[in-house]
Design goal:
By secondary structure, the chain is of the alpha+beta class. About 55% of the residues lie in helices and about 20% in strands. Among the domains are: about 50 residues; about 60 residues, Roll (Nucleotide Exchange Factor Grpe, Chain A, domain 2). Strands 1-4-5 form a 3-stranded antiparallel beta sheet. A hairpin with a 2-residue loop joins strand 4 and strand 5. Helix 3 packs antiparallel against helix 4. It is elongated, with a radius of gyration of 41 Å.
Length: about 180
């Protein structure tokens, strides 16, 4: 009987092989998860760095397409200046207008009588006119927009109401 009681005590003192296997398995799984976490963190860091580089390059080279569109205009303008040919200058003007159009840059050139728009026009003067007040009388300098943003407002002269002389009962006909 003593042998029977000794054996269970022996088994209790020694760790079970299945517990050691479970511990080894858990450690392996932990190492695998740690490795996966480190790889995921490295991938996220690399993606962040790539995005920063792409954003910096996009900002740095944003005008590249526009600049490439203007280079032939510059070449033509230089050639027109060398030859002093007026038709060459007209060609350059058309090329420039095309390049600006491709870059989504549009003229702001209000017609006389058009309503004054403080977001797109800048009033440089107000003159008495028989036209409706707050309408454009003339354009001093065209403005430009890029998409829906004003690059430069059009410089305009705006109509104001004609002021009638006040308090002068004597007219020019009364002086004769």
């Amino acid at each position: 009987m003593q042998e029977e009681s000794v054996q269970p005590q022996k088994a209790e003192n020694q760790p079970s092989p299945s517990l050691e296997e479970q511990l080894a398995e858990a450690r392996a799984k932990l190492a695998e998860q740690r490795d996966q976490m480190l790889r995921t963190a490295a991938e996220a860091d690399n993606a962040r760095k790539r995005a920063q580089t792409e954003a910096a390059n996009a900002q740095k080279y944003a005008l590249e397409r526009f600049a490439n569109g203007l280079l032939p205009v510059l070449d033509s303008l230089e050639a027109a200046v060398r030859s002093a040919d007026l038709s060459g200058v007209e060609l350059v003007l058309r090329q420039l207008a095309t390049a600006l159009d491709k870059a989504n840059i549009r003229e702001v050139n209000p017609a006389p009588g058009e309503r004054f728009d403080p977001y797109r026009h800048q009033a440089m003067a107000a003159v008495e006119s028989n036209t409706e007040p707050n309408t454009v009388v003339s354009v001093m300098q065209k403005g430009y927009t890029l998409a829906d943003r004003v690059l430069r407002p059009a410089l305009v002269t705006v109509a104001k109401a004609v002021e009638k002389p006040a308090g002068n009962p004597i007219s020019d006909t009364d002086l004769d």
